[in-house]
């Protein structure tokens, strides 16, 4: 029995296997690790101007054009009619309301939406230039979603 096991182990070592800590022959799977390391070594970063700055700036300008075409007041105060009560007891008053929150909302929109679009295009550029890395990103996302239960 001992000699049979020893010859089996010698055969496995000759075929490219190795022994782990428990002295069981284990076949080394180098093709997967070679592919992964080759994909990492050949990584091409997309041009940040083409894949991030241009899409983000286009969306920024588009949001500005839409905002200014709607003629929304962002500074000062505006008059609005505020009504309370129901039916015949309805009382309406003209009140001045500050527009200070509108400008902060516009600033947040002008930062967040173009940044998100630029990030999405940059990620798309990574996936187009590096299909292996893109597949790894998608696989990691799928595994994460399946573990989280999403």
**Approximate strand percentage:** 5-15%
H-E order: HEEHHEEHH
Low-confidence stretches: none
Widest sheet: strand order?
Answer: 1-2
Protein model, in words:
With 150 residues, the protein is of the alpha+beta class. It folds into two domains: 1-35, no CATH class; 43-72 and 95-150, no CATH class. Helices cover 63% and strands 15% of the residues. The strands form two sheets. Strands 1-2 form a two-stranded antiparallel sheet. A hairpin with a 6-residue loop joins strand 3 (77-84) and strand 4 (91-98). The chain is elongated and about 100 Å long. The two termini are 52 Å apart. The mean pLDDT is 79.
Note the main attributes of this structure.
150 residues; alpha+beta; 2 domains; two-stranded antiparallel sheet; two-stranded antiparallel ribbon; 5 helices; 4 strands; 15% strand
Q: In brief, what are we looking at here?
A:
With 150 residues, this protein is an alpha+beta fold.
Helices and strands, with pairings:
Elements: H1 2-14, E1 17-19, E2 25-27, H2 30-41, H3 48-69, E3 77-84, E4 91-98, H4 100-129, H5 131-148
Antiparallel strand pairs: 1-2, 3-4
Helix pairs in contact: 3-4, 4-5
């Amino acid at each position: 029995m001992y000699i049979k096991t020893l010859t089996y182990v010698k055969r496995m070592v000759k075929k490219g296997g190795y022994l782990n800590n428990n002295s069981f022959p284990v076949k080394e799977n180098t093709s997967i690790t070679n592919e992964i390391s080759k994909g990492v070594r050949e990584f091409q970063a997309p041009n940040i101007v083409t894949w991030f700055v241009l899409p983000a700036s286009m969306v920024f300008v588009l949001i500005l054009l839409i905002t200014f075409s709607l003629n929304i007041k962002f500074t000062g105060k505006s008059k609005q009619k505020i009504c309370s009560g129901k039916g015949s007891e309805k009382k309406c008053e003209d009140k001045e309301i500050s527009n200070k929150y509108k400008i902060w909302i516009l600033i947040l929109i002008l930062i967040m939406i173009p940044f998100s679009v630029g990030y999405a295009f940059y990620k798309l550029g990574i996936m187009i230039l590096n299909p292996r890395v893109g597949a790894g990103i998608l696989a990691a996302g799928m595994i994460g979603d399946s573990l989280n239960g999403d």
